[in-house]
Amino acid sequence: MPRCRIQAHYEQLSEFERDHIIVLKEAGLANRRIVCHMSRSDATIRRCWEEWVDNGRFQQNDGNGRPRATTDWKDRVIVRSAVTVPDSLLSTIRRATLT
C-alpha cells in the first residue's frame, strides 16, 4: 500500500507541474519525496526528469487523432487570404496555398 495518494495514470502533467518537478529535482530532492509532494507516480517523475536531462526541454504531444492536413504556415496564409479579401472563392484560397 503506497504511503502517498497518486493521481490517475492517464492525466497529463501541466507545464507548471513539469517545471515544479524540475525545480525540485535540481534542488536535490529524491524521486520518492517528489512523488509524495506532487501526488504523481515514480515513473512519471522519472520520465519527466529524463526528458529534461536528455533534451533540455519537454515534448508536448498534440494527442491522438488524425494528423494535420496543413502546416502552421499554410494556416496563416489561409486566414490572411480570407481576411484581406472576404469575398474570395475557396478555389482562389487553395491556389494561394499551393505556392
TrEMBL record:
Highest taxon in the source lineage: Eukaryota
Official protein name in the record: Tc3 transposase DNA binding domain-containing protein
Organism of provenance: Stegodyphus mimosarum
